[in-house]
Design a protein that fits this description.
By secondary structure, the protein is α+β, with helices and mostly antiparallel strands. It is globular, with a radius of gyration of 30 Å.
Length: 596
């Protein structure tokens, strides 16, 4: 007999009754029923109930052990009585009577519970992550992640992609976030960077003639954490294709992404491959107030500025007259809502940093609120008719500069949808956002900057760069969005050296700058580069959505906390003086804050 186990804790069934077996695992729970001790023994695969009574030599040992101790049990498989069968457990028809026990490792008193998954302070959960990972939900989420990645790999191979590994120690990249720098011992004073993405390498693979590349790529960015982005590192399904249009990228990847979602969606519907809506960026900002729209929300934002060029509501007339806009979010069937519902929305907007959220109420065709009173019932009726709203529908107003109004309207659309229970939780709604602006104006720096990926091909090529206002140029750039989250981003790449130089000149970089910063790729493009494009899908976000988790830490093995600290391993830590000397480095303490 195997020294540790003949079966896992999920394998035994009625077919094994009468057999002598050996099981190993963790003591999950203990229940003392007056001389009879029931123990739930847990391993990676499941749980088996162990029974010990006064006839079992294992009883006194089990009584003295704490939960989470690791033991090996040898015993007899017995059928449970009909009234004690646990239909919710794979092994619920049997139990193992303990004839012998070996203690492999006794547990100390636990700093956090494992069997009961009640909320627990994050600091404790991360410090004792090895215990946290034993919890059923988190353990299951991690295994879902493993399965999702395996599924992605299989689907990519099936459509002709080969997996390549690109370097981890590399040069700085203009991906928009801070690099993690790695000092070089051999080249004193110089630094490598951990890759923010394998962008340049995957393009070089296309230049090298490999045609279809992918990898589950680790990426490193020194940026502040948030719920949908972990500090430090994340993983993406990275891919690139040669001789393709952006339509071919979409047609290739829709079945892959849709197939993975469908495989793990359970009873939730998934947008069919070939039917992902393709929404231009400008349309997304207008209709949804965001380039990450949640299409499960049926509410559509409309621009009603033309209704207020002349209006009794002076505030809106002044805003429109000075170049601003008025956007509206419908609030259907709110005739039974009290005035407090609308006032609370206005208070919420102010707490979010906006000037406020105007509103109009309507009940049985009668308009209410200051906007309706000043604008007039006839004009309000015209506005409602244009929007297709009914006699019991309310309306929220966001007014100001176009960008500010879009942002407020987008946030209000989400909140109204949630408050009114309009979000369809039974599906994963996927769409492409396309035709992104190539450039944007940085108000702080007072200059034009790239709005997305600087290596994208501008629509119109070099002619557009030379003849158009930069802020009107669109890019062959696209994002894949699911339920309000950006889950992938990509583009057709700029593979022409002269076009690349011109694109960077518009943001203030010279040809010499391009040669210095992106010399490898710039040189490569001068020796025959195929038209190519690709994308990167966020593995972490996809798994988070599929698991129904609200935070990436719930689908990640060993995440950092909100301060980018690894509480389990104690990172970051102070280096030894000898290590600093070998790297020719000296730590300069940051200036102390006043009053500190």
């Amino acid at each position: 007999m195997h020294p540790y186990r003949t079966h896992t804790c999920a394998q035994l069934s009625s077919a094994n009754v009468g057999e002598t077996v050996r099981l190993s695992g963790w003591i999950h729970r203990k229940r003392d029923h007056g001389g009879v001790l029931f123990v739930d023994l847990r391993d990676h695969y499941g749980i088996t109930q162990i029974v010990a009574d006064s006839d079992s030599p294992a009883l006194p040992v089990l009584e003295g052990l704490r939960v989470e101790s690791v033991i090996t049990i040898e015993g007899d498989v017995k059928a449970r009585m009909a009234e004690t069968v646990n239909a919710g457990l794979a092994t619920g028809a049997i139990e193992v009577f303990a004839r012998g026990i070996t203690v492999q490792s006794a547990a100390e008193e636990l700093p956090m519970p494992v069997a009961d998954e009640q909320p627990y302070p994050e600091e404790i959960r991360l410090k004792y992550r090895f215990l946290d990972l034993r919890r059923e939900t988190l353990h299951k989420n991690i295994m879902t992640r493993v399965a999702v990645i395996a599924d992605m790999r299989a689907r990519m191979a099936a459509v002709g992609f080969n997996e390549f590994s690109t370097p981890i120690l590399t040069a700085s990249s203009p991906e928009g976030a801070r690099d993690f720098l790695v000092p070089s011992r051999i080249h004193a004073g110089k630094f490598y960077a951990l890759p923010q993405a394998p962008q340049q390498y995957k393009q070089l693979l296309m230049v090298a003639g490999f045609d279809r590349y992918f990898q589950i790529a680790p990426c490193f960015r020194d940026e502040d954490p948030r719920a949908d982005r972990l500090p430090g590192e994340f993983y993406q399904l990275d891919l690139e294709m040669s001789f393709v249009t952006q339509e071919e990228v979409w047609e290739t990847m829709e079945p892959v992404i849709q197939g993975t979602f469908a495989a793990f969606a359970g009873d939730k519907a998934v947008t069919p491959a070939g039917e992902f809506p393709r929404i231009p960026y400008d349309e997304a900002i207008l209709k949804y107030g965001s380039d990450k729209p949640d299409l499960r929300n049926p509410l559509i934002i409309s621009d009603v500025s033309h209704h207020f060029t002349q209006s009794g509501f002076g505030l809106f007339e002044k805003i429109v007259g000075s170049g601003g806009v008025v956007r509206v979010v419908p609030a259907p069937a709110t005739h039974e809502k009290s005035r407090k519902f609308f006032d609370d929305m206005n208070d919420w907007a102010r707490k979010e940093g906006f000037a406020g959220l105007g509103y109009v109420t309507r009940k049985g065709g009668e308009f209410g609120g200051p906007i309706a009173k000043n604008h007039g019932p006839e004009r309000m009726a015209e506005l409602y008719a244009e929007l297709g709203l009914g006699e019991n529908d309310g309306l929220f107003f966001a007014a100001g500069k176009a960008g500010d109004a879009a942002k407020l309207a987008g946030a209000a659309r989400i909140r109204v949808g949630e408050e009114l229970g309009l979000i369809d939780e039974s599906r994963f709604a996927l769409c492409w956002i396309v035709d992104f602006p190539f450039y944007e104006y940085d108000d702080e720096a007072k200059k034009v900057e790239f709005s997305h990926n600087p290596f994208s091909m501008p629509q119109g090529g070099i002619d557009a760069l030379e003849g158009q206002d930069p802020l009107t140029i669109k890019a062959f750039q696209y994002d894949l969005v699911c339920n309000g989250y950006e889950i992938a981003s990509g583009s057709i790449r700029n593979h022409m050296p002269e076009t690349m130089v011109k694109a960077f000149e518009i943001v203030g970089l010279s040809k010499a700058d391009v040669e210095e910063r992106f010399g490898g790729m710039y040189r490569a493009f001068q020796y025959g580069a195929p038209p190519h494009g690709g994308m990167a899908a966020g593995v972490d976000r996809i798994v988070m959505l599929l698991c129904g988790a609200k935070n990436l830490r719930e689908i990640t093995l060993f995440p950092m906390n909100q301060r980018a600290e690894d509480l389990l391993m104690g990172a970051p830590s102070n280096p030894e003086p000898r290590a600093l000397r070998e790297l020719s480095l000296r730590v300069v303490e940051p200036p102390k804050k006043e009053g500190a």
